[in-house]
Write a structure and sequence with these properties.
The chain has 179 residues and is α+β, with helices and mostly antiparallel strands. 45% of the residues lie in helices and 23% in strands. The chain has four helices and four strands, in the order αααββββα. Strands 1-2-3-4 form a four-stranded antiparallel sheet.
Length: 179
C-alpha cells in the first residue's frame, strides 16, 4: 500500500528532487529573488527586535541593581541615625545638657562585601549630632532639648543626606533609668 502511494507521487512529479519550490510556496513555482529578499528583511527585523529586547532587559537589570544599592545605603543611614538617637536616650539629663559625652561629628562605614574599617569599596558616612535648646515653646526650654542627627555620604559622585530631628525631656525615660 505504501509502495503504491510512492509510485503515485513519483508519477505526479511531487516526490524526489522535483519539489514545489525552494521557498516553501504552495504554488509549485520556483522561489523568486523577491521572496528571498523578503526573507532577509524579515530576518533583519527579527534580529533588531531581539536586540532591542536584550537591551531593555539589560537596562532593567542594571536599574534594579542600582536601586537595590541606593535602598541599602538609605537603610544604613537610617540605622546610623537611630543608633545615635538610642545612645542619647540612654544618657542622663546632665550628660545630655553638658554635651561632653556626645561627639559632635562621627564617621561610619558600610561595605556589603564585609569590610568595616573603610578599606573596602563601600560608602563612608559622615555625620553630626547637634543638641540645642528646644526653640518651639519658650516655657519648656530649660527642661527640653532638640536633637538633630545628620548623615551625609557620597555614592557614584552623588551626594546624599539624611536628617533626623527629635526632642528629649529632662523628666523623660532617662530619669527612670538613672534615678
Amino acid at each position: 500500500m505504501v509502495g503504491q502511494r510512492v509510485k503515485t507521487l513519483q508519477q505526479s512529479g511531487k516526490a524526489g528532487g522535483e519539489s514545489c519550490g525552494t521557498a516553501g510556496s504552495d504554488t509549485g513555482k520556483p522561489a523568486t529573488a523577491r521572496s528571498k529578499v523578503f526573507t532577509l528583511i524579515e530576518t533583519l527585523v527579527a534580529m533588531g527586535v531581539l536586540g532591542l529586547t536584550v537591551g531593555a532587559v539589560y537596562t532593567a537589570i542594571t536599574f534594579g541593581f542600582s536601586s537595590m544599592r541606593a535602598s541599602r545605603e538609605n537603610l544604613r543611614a537610617t540605622q546610623i541615625m537611630i543608633e545615635k538617637v538610642e545612645l542619647i536616650r540612654l544618657l542622663s539629663w546632665g550628660q545630655v545638657v553638658t554635651n561632653n559625652i556626645l561627639p559632635a561629628t562621627f564617621v561610619a562605614y558600610y561595605d556589603p562585601a564585609g569590610s568595616t574599617n573603610g578599606k573596602g569599596g563601600g560608602a563612608k558616612y559622615t555625620g553630626t549630632i547637634e543638641v540645642m535648646p528646644f526653640a518651639s515653646v519658650k516655657n519648656y526650654q530649660p527642661e527640653m532639648r532638640e536633637v538633630i542627627v545628620r548623615v551625609d555620604w557620597v555614592t557614584g559622585g552623588l551626594k546624599h543626606s539624611r536628617k533626623l530631628k527629635t526632642q528629649i525631656a529632662h523628666y523623660g525615660l532617662q530619669n527612670y533609668v538613672y534615678n
